[in-house]
Task: inverse folding
């Protein structure tokens, strides 16, 4: 008998935590990729913290697991290897630099486009890493590449 009801309710199942690997391994490799309920994600281990997000960049589907992590405005970001978009690890915001065209002497400032990359929850239990997919109801730009025809991993059913 299914006590937690997850067999009857696909939504409950879709948002259940999935074990993606061992803490020891990601601490060495600093990143890992996984498929969580048919969604491709990347998990970064950076300065003692775990961050999970959709693996395909919101801009044009670039492979974020191949990008470098750099800090901009004091915020750790993954830099997409395709067109160098900067995405904050903690929140999935797209960062860009802007300058006031009416004030040429002004210094460029870092600004946020808002949350563009969907962030997923990473937890550790007994040395295992778990990812729980984001349930946030807003439409995130990275959803486009994580679902439907654009996702790389196709469902087997
Ligand atoms: Fe990532 Fe263009 S695909 S910056």
Result:
């Amino acid at each position: 008998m299914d006590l937690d009801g997850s067999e009857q309710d696909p939504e409950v199942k879709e948002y259940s935590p999935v074990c993606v690997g061992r803490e020891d391994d990601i601490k060495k490799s600093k990143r890992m990729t996984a498929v969580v309920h048919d969604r491709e994600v990347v998990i970064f281990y950076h300065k003692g913290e775990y961050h999970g997000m959709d693996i395909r960049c919101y801009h044009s589907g670039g492979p974020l697991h191949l990008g470098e992590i750099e800090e901009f405005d004091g915020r750790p970001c993954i830099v997409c290897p395709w067109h160098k978009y900067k995405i904050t690890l903690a929140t999935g915001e797209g960062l860009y630099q802007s300058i006031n065209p009416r004030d040429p002497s002004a210094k460029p400032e870092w600004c946020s486009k808002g949350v563009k990359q969907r962030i997923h929850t990473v937890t550790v239990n007994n040395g295992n890493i778990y990812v729980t997919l984001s349930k946030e109801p807003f439409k995130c730009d990275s959803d486009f590449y994580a679902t439907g025809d654009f996702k790389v991993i196709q469902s087997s059913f």
